[in-house]
């Protein structure tokens, strides 16, 4: 269970980003989490809620976009989502293919309100 | 009026920044740094004992070992005479780059060729934290079940090497080693795989060979211009 630690990092990053934007109040945070990130979105959601409660930022909803594993074929360029762990190219059969998505543990946006 | 502004930032960018600094220092000093990860009891400390046990006195190797509590592993490893330091995380289920930076503060990196890090026993959390290592090594023991790569894909995806340990138990447990290998390759087609027993010593020559090869590579990379 390291989601609490991750939630703390999220909150710290939000505070530092808000600090850079004078006169703005953050009202929502968008995150992207890949299926290979090793982070459970529900546990993170819960941990974040608990942490935010004790801060002036409360309430601060977290929107988590779950990102499936995506691969790109070096032979034909086809990009595809992995289903049933199959990473060879569904178009031309080439393997191995290159992972281009699914490891995200990153912000996507902040929603700000003028104060 | 609310305004949605895009934010390009990794959640763990502070950890990643420190890890990148560590990686640059390891490279400058020609150090091979390896990050060993497994569930508790898969055999990380045993593999390190086997590794240190065959090393000639004067070999420039050091070990950092992470645990939530106790310095038992550091004591097991210190008897080989090489520098060993315990990192007690006090509840945290993984090591992070800052802990490594602190633990290294009073060691001279110029005196090392190999730094082995035993992470806290856990197959999930350590996979998110870059420690500046050249490679992550995941250990899976025959007692744990051959479906683990599919259940814990984040670590198998990031590992350069899978060490399947406790093969001496294969005759006693329903562990399909071919299936374990296949499952690991479904998650990470490029993963290298070794089968060993830290109890009997079976398969350990291949492990020592892997280690020597990677050490030589780290030395060569240090001799090249950075970048
Ligand atoms: N049968 C068997 N037991 C092993 C082997 N390797 C380690 N063990 C035992 O497994 C237990 C846990 O090993 P340890 O190295 O402490 O695991 P760690 O928690 O990953 O550091 C110890 O009792 C070891 O003696 C092996 O190859 N075969
Ligand atoms: Mg141990
Ligand atoms: Zn293709």
Characterise this structure.
The complex is a heterodimer of chains A (115) and B (227). Chain A is built from two helices and six strands. Chain A is of the alpha+beta class and 115 residues long. Chain A has a single domain (2-11, 25-114), classed as hypothetical protein PF0899 fold, CATH 3.30.2320.80. Chain A is elongated. The model of chain A has no long low-confidence stretch (mean pLDDT 95). Chain B has a single domain (4-223), classed as P-loop containing nucleotide triphosphate hydrolases (Rossmann fold), CATH 3.40.50.300. In chain B, 36% of the residues lie in helices and 22% in strands. Chain B has helices at 13-28, 44-53, 72-78, 97-104, 148-151, 153-158, 177-187, 204-223; strands spanning 2-10, 32-37, 61-67, 84-88, 114-118, 135-141, 159-165, 192-195. A seven-stranded parallel beta sheet of chain B has the order 4-3-5-2-6-7-8, sandwiched between helices. In chain B, α3 links the parallel β3 (61-67) and β4 (84-88). The A-B interface holds A 1-2, 5-6, 9-10, 12-13, 17, 27-28, 30-31, 35-39, 85-87, 95-96, 99, 103, 105-114 and B 1-15, 92-94, 124-125, 127-128, 150, 152-155, 157, 186-187, 189-190. β6 of chain A pairs antiparallel with β1 of chain B, so a sheet runs across the interface. The complex binds guanosine-5'-diphosphate, magnesium ion and zinc ion (ZN).
CATH architecture annotation name of chain B:
3-Layer(aba) Sandwich
Indicate the percent of residues in helices of chain A: 25-40%
**Radius of gyration of chain A using CA atoms only:** 18 Å
CATH topology of chain A: hypothetical protein PF0899 fold
Average pLDDT figure of chain A:
95
Q: What is the CA-CA span between the terminal residues of chain B? A: 46 Å
Shape of chain B: globular
Order of helices and strands of chain B: EHEHEHEHEEHHEHEH
Give a count of the beta strands of chain B, DSSP E runs of length 2 or more. Answer: 8
Largest sheet of chain B: 7 strands, parallel
The CATH class of chain B, by name, is Alpha Beta
State the name of the first-level CATH class of chain A: Alpha Beta
CATH topology of chain B: Rossmann fold
Give the overall pLDDT of chain B as a whole number.
Answer: 95
Tell me the number of helical segments of chain A per DSSP (H or I, 4 or more residues long).
Answer: 2
**SS-based structural class of chain B?**
alpha/beta
Count of folded domains of chain B: 1
Radius of gyration of chain B: 18 Å
